[in-house]
């Protein structure tokens, strides 16, 4: 009888694993990309093959393109010594931001996260272990997101979390659906540049020019706080944007 029970359990587990594998195999991944803004015109995803998928699940890559508003966001996978300086500038300039954090950041940077919340910023979800969301099961997606949310709630005064940036900008119809059921809005971006390679920093003016040249109404700006260039250019980027008549708002203040 024990052998029969063990066989039944084994077959049940095997069937479950097969179902997960089939779901993952049939889950077509997309890699987020966009046409950059030029001369102040809005960025575009009209030529990408995923526009309808984003719309279907309420995901965003920019806000209202009729308003001269900007939304500053950072991805924080690990700390490289520059986030405090960025926070200093944001506080001085009165600019809010969203910091999307991973499990590693949660485990190692509680003081910085507390400061983010204390100074009026939002913490968003960047997953616990930064996996390709299209290659893991629904249950694992839920676990990845819940762990970040729960730990941020324990470590800071922020008790809710409903903004998510998929790791590496990889997503699918399934991953968007699972995260949306948890109450998340998937947030992509309409301004970005290659700033995450710490061995390829080129100076504050390079960062300044890369960001300011792409400014457009309703833009969601993606930056990485590990970049020294970004930290050094933060003040000048904000000043240049304000001189052009832009206002910085937090993502939860947007009007779609």
From TrEMBL:
The keyword Iron does not apply. InterPro entries: Glyco_hydro/deAcase_b/a-brl, NODB_dom, Polysacc_deacetylase_ArnD, Spore_PdaA. It comes from the Bacteria. Residues 1-21 form the signal peptide. One of its GO terms (molecular function) is hydrolase activity, acting on carbon-nitrogen (but not peptide) bonds. Pfam families: Polysacc_deac_1. One of its GO terms (biological process) is carbohydrate metabolic process. GO terms for cellular component: membrane. Keywords: Signal. Gene3D superfamilies: Glycoside hydrolase/deacetylase. NCBIfam families: spore_pdaA. Residues 68-249 form the NodB homology domain. This is Delta-lactam-biosynthetic de-N-acetylase. PANTHER family: GLYCOSYL TRANSFERASE-RELATED, PEPTIDOGLYCAN-N-ACETYLMURAMIC ACID DEACETYLASE PDAA.
């Amino acid at each position: 009888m024990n052998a029969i029970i063990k066989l039944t359990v084994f077959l049940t587990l095997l069937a479950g694993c097969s179902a997960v594998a089939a779901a993952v195999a049939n889950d077509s991944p997309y890699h987020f990309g966009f046409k950059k803004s030029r001369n102040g015109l809005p960025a575009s995803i009209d030529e990408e093959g995923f526009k309808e998928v984003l719309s279907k699940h309420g995901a965003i890559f920019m806000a209202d393109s009729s308003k001269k508003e900007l939304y500053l966001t950072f991805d924080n996978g690990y700390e490289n010594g520059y986030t405090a300086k960025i926070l200093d500038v944001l506080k001085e300039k009165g600019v809010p931001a969203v910091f999307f954090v991973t499990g590693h950041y949660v485990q190692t940077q509680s003081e910085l996260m507390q400061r983010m919340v204390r100074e009026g910023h939002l913490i968003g979800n960047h997953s616990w272990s930064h996996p390709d969301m299209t290659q893991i099961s629904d249950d694992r997606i839920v676990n990845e997101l819940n762990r970040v949310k729960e730990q941020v709630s324990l470590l800071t005064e922020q008790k809710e979390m409903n903004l998510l940036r998929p790791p590496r900008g990889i997503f699918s119809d399934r991953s968007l659906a699972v995260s949306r059921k948890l109450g998340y809005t998937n947030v992509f971006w309409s301004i970005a540049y290659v700033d995450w390679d710490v061995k390829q920093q080129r100076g504050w003016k390079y960062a300044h020019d890369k960001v300011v040249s792409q400014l457009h109404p309703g833009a969601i700006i993606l930056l990485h706080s590990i970049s020294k260039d970004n930290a050094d250019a933060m003040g000048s980027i904000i000043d240049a944007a304000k001189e052009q008549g832009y206002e910085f708002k937090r993502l939860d203040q947007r009007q779609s």
